[in-house]
Amino acid sequence: MSVREQGQRARKAATVLATASRATKDAALRAMADALVARTPEIVEANADDVARAREAGTPDHIIDRLRLDATRVAAMADGLREVAGLPDPVGEVVRGTVLPNGLELRQLRVPLGVIGIIYEARPNVTADAAGLCLKAGNAVLLRGSSSARSSNTAIVATLRDAAEASGLPADSVQLVGGESHEDVKQLMRARGLVDVLIPRGGAGLIRSVVEESTVPVIETGVGNCHVYVDAAADLGMALEILLNAKVQRPSVCNAAESLLVHKDVADEFLAAALPALRDAGVTVHGTAEVRAAGDRSGVEVVPVTEEDFGTEYLSLDISAAVVDSLDAAVAHIREYGSGHSEAIVTGSQPAARRFVAEVDAAAVLVNASTRFTDGGQFGFGAEIGISTQKLHARGPMGLPELTSTKYVVVGDGHVRP
Amino acid sequence: MSVREQGQRARKAATVLATASRATKDAALRAMADALVARTPEIVEANADDVARAREAGTPDHIIDRLRLDATRVAAMADGLREVAGLPDPVGEVVRGTVLPNGLELRQLRVPLGVIGIIYEARPNVTADAAGLCLKAGNAVLLRGSSSARSSNTAIVATLRDAAEASGLPADSVQLVGGESHEDVKQLMRARGLVDVLIPRGGAGLIRSVVEESTVPVIETGVGNCHVYVDAAADLGMALEILLNAKVQRPSVCNAAESLLVHKDVADEFLAAALPALRDAGVTVHGTAEVRAAGDRSGVEVVPVTEEDFGTEYLSLDISAAVVDSLDAAVAHIREYGSGHSEAIVTGSQPAARRFVAEVDAAAVLVNASTRFTDGGQFGFGAEIGISTQKLHARGPMGLPELTSTKYVVVGDGHVRP
Questions:
Q1: Where is the Aldehyde dehydrogenase domain (chains A, B) (predicted)?
Q2: I want to staple B132 with a disulfide (CB 3.0 to 4.6 A). Which of A288, B14, B75, B81 is the partner?
Q3: What is the pLDDT of residue A204?
């Protein structure tokens, strides 16, 4: 089936989903969860094909690990769907409402977006997560996973579709798109009018190509070149804990820190503690001359940093580091190299915190807290479809409300405009 | 100066505007208003050049009328800026806020978008309106007016820039972009990273080309193929008043009605009254066979309607018309031909109203009220930058909050993720 046909089926499903009650949607989500558990052997078997292909292709182990499904991981996917069923339904919420001076009743209601396209890489658990969130918010979804997870995704989507249908919702609420060639991604990006929004989830390259080529509106997600700025007034012990947590706790994710900025007044003291601690945690520091000199004094090797390093999201145990002359210089550095994801300051100074918060332009600005907190789960949203780094529609972790639009409803009794 | 350089200057101005206080911004808006009034002769003289050029080019009178400025119109522009100064500042509003279980303080704050590009046609009053709204919401603006209003826009922007500067804000808060060739529009559409959002205001052709070619996120505005559906349970006197108001009160605007749908049970009676009334108001009806037969019975000529008519935003004293078998058929027709702007039902039936509101997918759905009410001023927003017909970010009339994004601020006391 062509992507266009799939889009048309999705549109049709979306009109049903738009007016489906919360009870129906939640029952479908629970049925999907039960079906995933019941059909675990089938899904794990399909996944084994993907894993075998990946091995043959010489895929690195850590990618294969992300691809692999077992009964525990399938159960976790099912639990995720049950959690989504427990979240409040954003659809129908009155965002604002008033009676106008002429007596017209005006309400702005939350409504589904319609059809959402998700383009994502390796991890097959995204398939169930994304489908569940889209469905809960009343949207049909077109899922374009990577070809490396094709068998797993096919088995998961077949399971979800059957469960949706058994619950009285259209099977086409959830569809898997092609996956064999890049041509279907292109078609998805050109399906304006059929697809209301595309959300790419994955590496910087994927996101850039979708942003540049799509005529369908895109929500950019996930690239995080996050900084930790240690201010002159920082508690240096706290700063070190935050730095290590932000860099090391899970280096492969977008809210991990990629760059350290230290105020010159505390640079010697902080780096003397931080460089050995980073080394002990397995982190390679890419530093300026000042940072390297501090490394020499501590007996820690610091790699020379390049201009490119400062703009790099390593997603690994690497960090760029620089000493800055002032808060202004830190803000200017972040403005130049940051990706607008999460930026942290460690400081005991209220004026410094206030200025950093006001002047740094990012989805999340953190004071005396690790960048790792920028996360829908941590923020209490219950679930997350991604972290938007753009400014339109949604910025930061996106939960269910971010998967909706609004509609104005105006009720009169024969009102005409004078 | 290249659009790129202008974008860089705008970005720099935007960083100042982002943290400007409401007092400073309002003072600048009032200074701009005063300056427009003070420099009226200069502006009117510049406008005379545009008008003369338009005459030479054989521009139709109604376009020239929209282009023309006199002291009254300049004063109205100034009043518009003063009104914007009186509106609440959206920046800094806490959209949501909570303390997370771990003690982290989480707030979502409204922040400016940054740099907004506006691409618009003939009317030079848009120049001051758009600049005022963007500035109030803390954004720098790149204005790309039509070449036919080049002299007027140059004089207006020079006035606004001088007033901004005299008030302590950067002159580059407001910039006029090229205007001589289409090349600068293209550059604006490709200025991703420098421009945060593009808002095209004008005809369907302009909007389509911006939507298709832009890599900068776009907010689609203004195309309104609006329907009035007269339900079986309508008060037919009310229906006629609403229809006439929606079609005739100002036919050239996007919230005017372009299509009439009548339920078959009331078609004969309603059309017997409506067709002569529309004719008397100077409206040409493009109707289906049933509507034409009703016309014959009333002695009113009805032009045969084409498939294309149903999809046409006439913006003139024309209306397409069809008889439908049911509410479902009306909803299906609107789904097929509507542009998602404003759709009205006239009905005395609560279930019919409820279904129409739930099933019609548009920025505004009106019950027993004219489509002409979909308007920022009418909705009480105080001002309007346009009416979005897309679902992302903003839908319906866009006021100041729609010219902002948000930022999460997270404050802890050394919080790290376990």
A1: 5-280
A2: B81
A3: 79
ipTM over 0.90: yes
**Average pLDDT of the residues in A118-133:** 91
Separation CA B273–CA B62 (nearest Å): 31
Q: How far is Cα A186 from Cα A193, in angstroms, rounded to an integer?
A: 15
Sequence-separated (6 or more) residues with CB below 8 Å from residue A350: none
B127 burial level (CB within 10 Å; 0-12, 13-18, 19+): buried
Amino acid A158: pLDDT: 98
| Closest CA in chain A for residue B397 | A408
Contact (CB<8Å) A391/B113:
yes
The DSSP annotation for A70-131 comes to -HHHHHHHHHHHHHHHHSPP-TT-EEEEEE-TTS-EEEEEEEE-SEEEEEE-S-THHHHHHH
Suggest the residue from B189, B372, B373, B374 to mutate for an interface test with chain A (most A CBs closer than 10 A).
B373
The two domains A3-220+390-410 and A226-373 share their CATH topology (first three levels equal): no
DSSP state of B221: B
Phi, psi of B73 (to 5 degrees): -70, -35
In the chain, the amino acid numbered B277 is A
User: CA A365 → CA A223, A389, B412, distances in Å?
Assistant: 15, 12, 11
Which of A 28-47 lie inside 8 A of B, CB atoms? none
**Is there a contact between A369 and B395 if contact means CB atoms under 8 Å apart?**
no
Q: Which of B186, B178, B192, B233 is nearest to B209 (CA)?
A: B186
* CB A135 within 8 Å of CB A167: no
Which residues in chain B have their CB less than 8 angstroms from residue A244's CB? 416
| Chain A residue whose CA is closest to B189 | A212
- Tell me whether B390 touches chain A (CB under 8 Å): yes
Residues 6+ apart with CB under 8 A from B48: none
CB within 8 A of B129, min separation 6: which ones?
A: B77, B80, B383, B385
Residues within 8 A of A (CB atoms), B 275-304 only: none
Q: DSSP secondary structure string, A138-178?
A: T-EEEEE--GGGHHHHHHHHHHHHHHHHHTTS-GGGEEE--
Determine how many CB atoms are found less than 10 A away from the CB of residue A336.
10
For A44, other C-beta atoms within 10 Å of its C-beta total: 18
Domain residue ranges of chain B, discontinuous segments joined by +: 3-220+390-410, 226-373
Are A411 and B373 in contact (CB < 8 Å)? no
Q: Is the pLDDT at A179 greater than 80, yes or no? A: no
Q: How far apart are CA B292 and CA B294, in angstroms?
A: 5
CATH of region A226-373, choose from 3.40.190.170, 3.40.309.10, 1.10.10.10, 3.40.50.970: 3.40.309.10
Token look-up 């500067």 returns B165
CB contact under 8 A, B392 and A242: no
pLDDT tens column, A398-414: 999 999 999 999 999 99
